[in-house]
User: What shape does this take?
Amino acid sequence: MVFRRLAPEKIDPFGRSGFGNLDRTGYDTFSRRDGSKVSGRPAHEISHNVRVISSRAGPLPQDSHRIKNSEEDKVSESNPMLTFVEGPIEGVEIRPLRFFHDKRGWLVEFFRDDEVAEDRQPVMGYVSSTLPGVSRGPHEHVDQTDGFAFIGPSDFKLYLWDSRPNSPTRGHKHVSIVGESNPAAVWIPPGVVHAYRNVGDVSGLVMNVPNRLYAGWGKKEPVDEIRHEEADPNPYPLD
Assistant: This one.
């Protein structure tokens, strides 16, 4: 499934004003390849268009907003009829993290330039707090690789689905517990749908060091994110 904005919008990098193409539910409306429409990411949480190739080192070329076939293929074509089975997912890397403790406290390395492939090297970082019982996702990216670090406090149930049309592990699903009881760095490539839920009793922190800038250089480009939370039926349920 490839989503496209039906009309241009005027929203700041964090979607705080000027909603563009809203349906009656207040969500952004997108079109599929077959011309049908679907509600996507909540407009109050997103800015600009959904499809993007964000720049690592500077502004994009003038014609970079155009979708090329090779870029479209990176988007997972969501199929409500696809049956997922547990299994590994190509391109996903889950690496245990080690804590170093001393009398001052502790330290943990969650990213090293010499341990990450060149096309996954981060260009920004952020940290989010998620309340107990709250989920984030499912969503996916067209071009962005996420580099999450789950180190606690609290534990998270991590969900991954591979519905990429050309992936050798298409139809695979991975679920694991990461966080305080199982510190881990998780690298998720473009097109792999992902979500996580705080399954602990306290607010949990998650760090992300993606390889693309949010909203592009100077926060002037479309946001690379396709959200599936409101899909009906939802092919990516969280149990």
